[in-house]
Amino acid sequence: MAYAFTPPEQAYLDITGSEEKFPVRRIYCIGKNYTAHVIEMGGDADRDPPVIFQKPNDAVVRNGGEIDYPVFTGNFHYEGEMVVVLKSGGHNIPVSEAASHIFGYACGLDMTRRDHQANAMANGLPWEVTKAFDQSAPIGPVTRIEDCGELTSGRITLSVDGEVRQDADMSWMIWKTDEIISKLSEQYRLMPGDVIMTGTPAGVGAVVSGNELVVHVDGLQDLKVRVGNPAG
């Protein structure tokens, strides 16, 4: 096949302890999935259907490192999350079968243009400009489920320059991982290579150039990200 120009490289994640790579197909994100975070964002913590949005796969920043302070925002926020990656999929996956589709887990950041998200929420507008921008999805190395077990509980934290800002347990998620996979499969055909960011706990906040973020999830390799200068 002859392309009109060189196609972009396949986005991928590293796999802990392996030379193999995990190819990224889509990035699904779950919003408002920890009760305290829903409340801090001014929402109702009832168990409504999960909020679903996507990021482009080229928003991935493998293993962290440095990201630019993005254009088109003056209020750049972190959201530390546990990430699930899939080895298989399908439509209408039962909750009882969801774990069989999991390849592994990683630490991730759902970086957000909070000023534009506030405007979108107030006016019923899409979230794309607030979530789906360049370098908005730093994700650490993937740990295979065989090496860490199914993660249904355990501490998740985010620190900024050594100060813990987010501190929760994954068991506090409103929609559990198996339920998220099942719910997503009602609306999309899930496929190998799909990445799911499972939501963030309370404690989100703004960062500026020079800040260092560390996301920790028990059983996984930490993700470290430094916020660089404004994007040119």
From TrEMBL:
<protein>
    <submittedName>
        <fullName>Fumarylacetoacetate hydrolase</fullName>
    </submittedName>
</protein>
<feature type="domain" description="Fumarylacetoacetase-like C-terminal">
    <location>
        <begin position="27"/>
        <end position="227"/>
    </location>
</feature>
<dbReference type="Pfam" id="PF01557">
    <property type="entry name" value="FAA_hydrolase"/>
</dbReference>
<keyword id="KW-0378">Hydrolase</keyword>
<dbReference type="InterPro" id="IPR011234">
    <property type="entry name" value="Fumarylacetoacetase-like_C"/>
</dbReference>
<dbReference type="GO" id="GO:0046872">
    <property type="term" value="F:metal ion binding"/>
</dbReference>
<dbReference type="InterPro" id="IPR036663">
    <property type="entry name" value="Fumarylacetoacetase_C_sf"/>
</dbReference>
<dbReference type="GO" id="GO:0018773">
    <property type="term" value="F:acetylpyruvate hydrolase activity"/>
</dbReference>
<keyword id="KW-0479">Metal-binding</keyword>
